[in-house]
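Box 3.1 A note on notation
Throughout this textbook, protein chains are presented in two layers. The first layer is the amino acid sequence; the second is a token string describing backbone geometry. Keep the layers aligned when reading.
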Amino acid sequence: MKKIAIIGSGNIGLSLAKGLVKADFAKAADITLTRRNIDHLQSFADAGFVVSNNNKDAVAKSNILILAVLPQQLNTVLDEIHPVVNPAKHLVISVISGVSCAAVREKLGADVEVIRVMPNTAIAIGQSMTCIASDNATVENITDVTKMFETVGSVVKINEDLMTSATALCACGIAFFLRAIRAASQGGVEIGFHADEALKMAVQTAKGAADLLLLHGTHPESEIDKVTSPKGCTIAGLNEMEHNGFSSSLIKGIKLSALQAGNLYTKAQ
């Protein structure tokens, strides 16, 4: 039986815990959630999860260790739990931005298997786009971790040197697409809709656009071609957006976020 300890039970950790139980990957009683103030975890305790503010004890009683603290908290936590981490027993999963597998092993021991995982906040509704990478984990453990995160969305295995890029495209990307939806809804207000109506229309239209690509397996341009006609209103709107830098600004934003993501852990030290 797998015993899971989630160290740093914020939004990502708690969403994962709920997803694992909902998908019958694990029982609530087999998941320990740690946080400095356990009062915030009372509802999870009521649901059968083990809650604790003792990281060492949680790690000692687990065989899967999920690190979900802030980058600036990581070194303190790793120093704290190092004495009870056993390479023969523990698999370490890190969901911390900008922290390499090697950096975790440097603190916990060279023989510890570490898998780096980058989900996004849509994990809360089981719709995360999660990327995973490792430089020393077994195929079996990578397969298990893939199944674990498939309980809360889609998973892609990538090379670790692309993890900061995945952070920008998938984790930060949630905010980028939300901002685009917000802008579309504001445009809707400009052309006559009430704010709540415009937001509902923009959200459903964005969802429909995404589902077209997912379900048809098509390229965005092929779906765009179906909407644009010669001298039509769609192409006029698209070209106006492009003249004002729509695509280029999004690309530049993603590139800058990737650069920042790569520096998070360095700045925290």
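DSSP finds twelve helices and eight strands in the chain. The chain has a mean pLDDT of 93.
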